[in-house]
Amino acid sequence: MHHRVWRFLIVAATVVTTSLAAAADDAPQLQEEVWALPLPKPTIAYVVRPVGNGPFPLAIMNHGVSLDPVQRGFFPLCEFRDAAKWFARRGYMVVAPSGPGYGAAAYDAPEAGLFSVFFSNIGNCSNPNFQDAGLAAAQLNLWIIDYTARLKRIVPDNVIVIGQSAGGWGSIALSSLNPAPVKAIITFAAGRGGRVGGKPNSNCAPDKLVEATAALGRTSRVPMLWLYIENDTFFGPELSKRMYAAFTGAGGNAEYHLFPPHGSEGHSFIGAADAVPIWSPLVSAFLDKHK
């Protein structure tokens, strides 16, 4: 489709709400939008940014996954709006893509020959392919960086990436590619294969996950901040510390921080409004260090 037509679709798909940031008197006004991204795999994204034309530094926020196509069909457009707005108040244009295979794109009707595209399938749990699933998710980020740079809406060499759960795992995979525009990566509760059969603290193949983490660490040099929570029943402290040791032992550049328990399930830490004051000082210091 012609580039100008796609620009029109973005404008037509935009839902604009302008709100004053309550934090500080000089905090920027924010504009929230919905974009249709004409990527090789067309994607809908929640976008929040300071009011104005920019260009702005870019922050990409990657959500987690559900292996159930029905649940993917009802997945929220943005899992972590309060967190996204916090990054926007720091001056970032935040793009939170709804991954391929989510929302309306999650529709599967095999009897009619209709199958959705799902980027993050790890395959059989007895022999999961964690690494390639992460790299597939990372590809979406590379497309977004390229597209927003071509629109001249972003500062092309000033990009950060934030990911939660499987989105955090995709962000770790992205770090192994060392894309030049990406200055820093922050992950919340990153991993894959958590809660097999819905059971807490039951990982699909923890040893293989640790091995895959080491494989990604061998080439990763992007500064990273890994945030985990003690009462995360997907990726608990023992497993996350093993992953971190494997990653940094292989050469990866990461800082690790374990927060005390939060709520009834720490895995959703980033999505909780009351968690923002808890993690934001650490994230602020990290971003200030890697400007």
Question: Can you characterise this structure?
Answer:
This protein has 291 residues and is of the alpha/beta class. The chain has helices spanning 3-12, 69-73, 81-89, 130-150, 166-175, 206-217, 237-249, 276-289; strands at residues 17-19, 30-37, 43-50, 56-62, 93-97, 154-164, 182-188, 224-229, 254-259. It has a nine-stranded mixed beta sheet, with helices on both faces. The radius of gyration is 18 Å and the shape is globular. The N and C termini lie far apart (37 Å).
H/E topology pattern: HEEEEHHEHEHEHEHEH
Quickly count the helices.
8
Number of strands: 9
Q: Please, what is the average pLDDT?
A: 84
Rg estimate, integer Å: 18 Å
Main beta-sheet annotation? 9 strands, mixed
> Within the largest sheet, what's the order of strands?
1-2-3-5-4-6-7-8-9
Report the span from N to C terminus: 37 Å
Structural classification = alpha/beta
Strand content: 15-25%
Low-confidence spans: pLDDT under 50, at least 5 residues? 1-25
Tertiary shape: globular
Percent of residues in helices: 25-40%
